[in-house]
Amino acid sequence: MNDVVIDFSKVHQIKLFGITIMEPSTVLSSLVMTAVCIYAFIHLNRLGRAHRMYKQIQYFFLFMAIATAIGGILGHGFLYMTGKVGKIPGWFASMIAVALFERAAIWHIKPLLQRRNGLILGWLNYVELTVFFVLTFITLDFRVVEVHAFYGLFLMLFTIEIYVYKKRKDPGSKNIFLATLMGAIAAGFHALKFSFGDWFNYNDIAHIPMSLSIWFYYQGARHMTYYGEEMIVPEEVVASEGEA
């Protein structure tokens, strides 16, 4: 188990109304991501798209909002009260979010594949989430969550959207490529632990491109076309083609 003793006296903190909040800059930058996720969830809901592909993307943003809020508040701000246990709900919520967007991408590509291959991808999605849930619960190691995000967003989602774009030039795929780039930049800052001091550390810096990544995922969700028998072309895509 990944047990690390933290000297909380050395972690930057503030007192607000007599309550100690650790790493306040990281709490704030996490809540910025939460705000972007909530905005995306609300606005996608207003579009009223009922197909499972769109609904799964929509709930990606809901679970990512839960993950970033819990991660910022319990995983950083009140870590001295909750300990590592306080991080686990946010970790699980983020893994559910990744699996949902990955599943939406599977719906995106399914009409372009043989039925058997689409079914395999769908079952792989369930097995993957189960395995990573178990590994996270056993190890309590955030690196397992990071590996799952890499697998789901980089290896699966990004690869699927490359295929869809090559076949149909889907405008949503282009936004997902930009989201992936922003995610890679965020991962690089985090891995290198690039910081400008305690009050603007690698977590805070990484949260900036992560917020942009979430925004581009939202744009991708708005513009993705479903290519099933009853093709669903978002109104935004139809309007842009009309202007062209």
TrEMBL record:
<feature type="transmembrane region" description="Helical">
    <location>
        <begin position="88"/>
        <end position="106"/>
    </location>
</feature>
<feature type="transmembrane region" description="Helical">
    <location>
        <begin position="27"/>
        <end position="47"/>
    </location>
</feature>
<feature type="transmembrane region" description="Helical">
    <location>
        <begin position="176"/>
        <end position="193"/>
    </location>
</feature>
<keyword id="KW-0812">Transmembrane</keyword>
<dbReference type="Pfam" id="PF22285">
    <property type="entry name" value="DUF6962"/>
</dbReference>
<feature type="transmembrane region" description="Helical">
    <location>
        <begin position="59"/>
        <end position="82"/>
    </location>
</feature>
<keyword id="KW-1133">Transmembrane helix</keyword>
<dbReference type="InterPro" id="IPR054235">
    <property type="entry name" value="DUF6962"/>
</dbReference>
<keyword id="KW-0472">Membrane</keyword>
<feature type="transmembrane region" description="Helical">
    <location>
        <begin position="144"/>
        <end position="164"/>
    </location>
</feature>
<protein>
    <submittedName>
        <fullName>Uncharacterized protein</fullName>
    </submittedName>
</protein>
<feature type="transmembrane region" description="Helical">
    <location>
        <begin position="118"/>
        <end position="138"/>
    </location>
</feature>
